[in-house]
Amino acid sequence: MRNVPASLALAGCLVALACAGPSQSLRTPPRETVPDWETPPIPESMRPLVKVMPLPEPTRPTPPPRGRVEAQPLEDDPSVRILSFTTPRGQPVTLRYKQKSRSVGRTNRGHLEDGRCLPNQGPGFVHPGDAACGTDETVTLVLFAIGEVMRDYPDTVPIVVGALSMPTGGKLRPHKSHRSGRDIDFGFFRTGNEALHHFEDIAADRIDFDKSFLLMANLIATGRVQNIFVNYALQSRLHQAARDMGYDDAQLSWLFEYPRGRKAQAGVIRHAKGHTRHFHVRFVCPTGDSTCDEL
To answer: Pick from 280, 43, 236, 248: which is nearest to 138 by CA?
Structure first.
């Protein structure tokens, strides 16, 4: 496993946090829904081999990895999950985490058991709402991806994290999904590294598409993202940010519904009505969770 940067180490520590207490609510958004249909898991053969981009020069010393005490060897603990993948920057990563949660049923008809919850704030993010809980896998991957953004942008302002699920899942108004711990909303970064504290209407020329897509790319690279929903009107700018990052035409076609039209139902990143103030990430069922239903 590669050396963990300071920012990611801090973010990784949050994976073990228990559910935080009640917090102030997000400003009530207009009713926004994602499509009822869901795509099957993405075949391994279809995942893009992302071009390796040069790493920036480190801006601060990288501490040695923190030691960890294992109560028993990982191979003897059936709750331990191991995910290995390559980041968009070409770095191999292996994540290990314990899975106690269960995503029961579908994202629009299910519930969550033993959910793991985010606090109101942590390294690289703020979460000003109550629906802060997801599966162990969802929370692990979210904290990892945020840590990777911090790695490339050490002085970045926090990303605004919106709704996940309630501690036991179930209905979450005004959403039609967000019921089983596999959905999460993210606000966009704003240009000029200007901090936000909740979702806001941002003019397209004020959205930092490079940094926002970097977060998407790190999530997708884990191989555990089913779809990302964002308004089609913003996809051309995200598409350009992905091209600037080094993705080729074949990879862009796999990643984006754009430019095939908002009804194409193609690509990982797809149109959903509304979704101009945030984007919606849906993860596949957690590894080994037989109670979860993706279709």
So the answer is: 280
Q: What is the DSSP string of 146-196?
A: HHHHHHHSTTPPPEEB---B-TT---BTTBSS--SS-EEEEEPPBGGGB--
102-149 confidence digits (pLDDT tens): 999 999 999 999 999 999 999 999 998 889 999 999 999 999 999 999
Q: Which amino acid is at 65?
A: P
Domain range summary for the chain, segments of one domain joined by +? 6-21+78-227
What distances in angstroms separate CA 42 from CA 132, 141, 155, 224, one per listed residue? 26, 17, 34, 8
Q: Give per-residue burial for 217-248: e unless 16+ CB within 10 Å, then b.
A: bbbbbbbbbbbbbbbbebbebbbebbeebbbe
Strand, helix or coil for residue 63: coil
The residue to which tokens 């180490």 are assigned: 9
What is the average pLDDT across 195-215? Answer: 92
